[in-house]
Structure formats: C-alpha cells, structure tokens
Amino acid sequence: MTQLLSFMSDIAREGAEPVLPPARELDLLLYAPCPVKLVMKDAVDSVSADMAARGLPPLAMHVPMGCTSIDPYDPLCCESDPDALPGVIASIGFGDFWKRGFVERFAGVFESVRPQTLSPLHEKAGMLDPDGARTIYGVTPYLFVVDLARLGDVPPPRTWAELLEPRYSGRITMCGDGDDMADAVLLSVYKDFGLEGITRLAESCRGFMHSSTMTKAAGAKNSEAGAIFIMPAFFACSTKQPDSVRVIWPEDGAAASPLYFLAKKSGKKRLGPLLHALTAGFAAIPSAAWFAPLALDAAHSPLPPEASLKWVGWDFIRANDINTLRDRLNNEFRTLHRAHMAKIQAEGTGGKAGACAS
Questions:
Q1: Is 294 within 8 Å of 113 (Cβ atoms)?
Q2: pLDDT tens per residue, range 41-90
Q3: Neighbouring C-beta atoms of residue 218, cutoff 10 Å
Q4: 32 exposed, middle or buried (CB, 10 Å; 0-12, 13-18, 19+)?
Q5: Into which CATH architecture does domain 142-254+324-356 fall?
Q6: CB contact at 8 A, 253 and 121
Q7: Could you give the 3-state DSSP secondary structure of residue 276?
Q8: d(CA 71, CA 101)
Q9: 282, 43 in Cβ contact below 8 A?
Q10: pLDDT tens digits, residue range 105-123?
Q11: Are 21 and 56 in contact (CB under 8 A)?
C-alpha cells in the first residue's frame, strides 16, 4: 500500500511541460511506467548533477509527465537520419520504436548494454537481444489476481491455457484504459493459441479496468467486476488484499511487456553513467523490483520463487511486424468483445459488464 500511495503522490508532482529542444539535442528521451516514472527521473537528474559537478556538460533529457500526456516527440519513429535521434531512447511496451521500418532504417546504430549482474528471469526467458541492439532493462509482468470467494467451487486458473477454458467465461476483467491494452497478454495468447485464443479471451472478458482501479475492485463486495483480474505485478503485489484474494503467478510465466532502451553506439562512452542508472540503478529502486529489473539478482528480488516470465521471443518479433500485429490484435480483441457483449444483451441472458465495461 505504501508503494501505491507513493505512486499517487508522484502523479501530483507532475507539472506543466517546458518548451522542448529538438530530439537531436537530447541525451535521453525517457518514457517510463507511471509507478516508477518520478523515481527514475530523480535518478537520471542525480546522474546529470554529478556530471555537472565534475565539470562535464549536464544531460539534456526529457521525461514526458502524466500517464496520458500528449507526446511532442511522437513523429520521431518516422525519422530517417540517425543524427536526428537522441543519444538514448527509453520506452515501454511494443510501441513505435518496434516498427519494422524504424528497426530496419537504424540497423547498426544502437548497441545494447549488458550489466555485470543479470537476472535469471531474463536469462531463462531469453530476453537478451541476440542482435545486440536493444536492452530490455525490465518488464511489466502481467499475472492473475483472483477473488476466490467470487469463483466459488471453481478452482483458479494456473496457466494461460486454463484461463481460456469455458468455466471462466464472463469472470475475467482485462487491464485496459482508453486505447491502451496489455499488449504482452494479447501477443502471448496469439502466439500460443492463434486468433482462436484471442476470441476465447475476448468472449470471457467482462470488461476493461485501469490497474489502479483493479486493486480496489478485487475483494470488494460489489461483484460486477468479475472474479479474475489480469494486471501488472506492481499493482497486484504492492497492496494488501482481503484473505479471499490470491495473486497467482502463471506457471507458464507472467506475460512480459518490455521496458527497454536504444543507446547509440556513438555516445555510449560519454553516456556510460546514464546507462548504468538505467540498468543497475533501476534495479536499486525498491518499487522497481516489481518490474523484474535486468540487473536484479534473485537474492534481492521480492518476486516469489515460482516467478517466471513469458516472453514472445526474438524469433517471433523478427517474423512479425510486432507493432502492427499489436495494434491489429488490440482492435480485433475489442471488436470481438463488443460483439459478444451485444449478443448477450440481445439474447437477454445477463452477463452485464457493469461499470468496468469499455
């Protein structure tokens, strides 16, 4: 609960955006998960101040504030000139910097960083980029939070395959807010079960809910939200829940949405302290532990011993335009869900989605 309250106070600290320099003048463009955005900014601010104290130029950087703020650097993925890019681009999920065109245009421009300490979770899941371009410095793991009282005699799901079984139909609430979705969940389900899996999940879903709202809905007396919540580990594990609520780390792994950065080869030496802050420094942030840092060893991780990550894999990423596929699955999932809910309402058989419906 302390970490969640800290997250809410961090949102209050986020103020108006200043006038921004061109991207080519930035050492760092940092998009970070909302729960750790401010502490990450504090960490890189400290690096910049230390560089200035040693007589070096301070870092030129931009960290967009607000969970849904308008992004003035949104067209950056359309650039063709490497000199027009920041020294380091750090982002989340499978967004624009995974577009096939971007990856192909800038092949050979970026070089990954491998910290001295490597998380066994990352190594086991195969998250180290074999092409040596992208550093996955952490992940948002999506897992199950289950209200056992609402499930009744039905046992909770242990794997993603079990989650798709008919007995959980109408009992699942999906992490989603506006146009945002848990991209790693849809991509993992699609990889393992194809469009049939996407259809089954869409038709089992009661509706969508922001992760911070899910923490209040699980275990609440109002049962409109369903019994099973798919949400990030940070929100699942950083709040105390009623005894009837159980956090389940899927046996086949929590769907892993990447936190990553792209660092230009040409600036790696000068920006070494910054890259250290994004790897070992990130692992040292207590609240970041729920984002499975690359540089956090098992002995210092609060994650349960059974924790593992479900990564879609580099072969799958290379075989697909992963950003385009993500958007297609997002639209397909929402379309299927709306059609299913409309059918239920037309048949008059119940299944009302309530306040959590999109």
A1: no
A2: 999 999 999 999 999 999 999 998 766 556 788 889 999 999 999 999 99
A3: 27
A4: buried
A5: 3-Layer(aba) Sandwich (3.40)
A6: no
A7: helix
A8: 20
A9: yes
A10: 999 999 999 999 999 999 9
A11: no
Structure tokens at 278: 């994004």
DSSP category for residue 277 = I
Please enumerate in sequence order all residues whose Cβ is within 8 A of that of 143, keeping only pairs 6 or more positions apart, or say none.
230, 231, 232, 233, 236, 247, 248, 249, 250, 254
- For residue 266, how many C-alpha atoms fall within 13 Å in the half-sphere facing its CB? 9
Cα torsion for 185, 186, 190, 193, to the nearest 10°?
Answer: 60
> Which two three-digit tokens encode residue 122?
């990352």
**172-186: b or e for each residue (b if 16 or more CB lie within 10 Å)?**
bbbbbeeeebbbbbb
Query: Would you identify the CATH topology of the domain 2-140+255-320?
Result: D-Maltodextrin-Binding Protein; domain 2 (3.40.190)
- Using CA atoms, how far residue 151 sits from 173, 239, 246, in Å, is 13, 21, 11
Whole-model pTM: value is 0.89
For the segment 220-256, what is each residue's pLDDT rounded down to a tens digit? 776 677 899 999 999 998 878 888 899 999 999 999 9
Q: How far is CA 201 from the centre of its chain?
A: 19
Q: Do the bridges between strand 254-263 and strand 205-209 make them parallel or antiparallel, or are there none, so unpaired?
A: unpaired
Residue listed under structure tokens 């209050």: 12
The Cα–Cα gap between 189 and 157 comes to 15
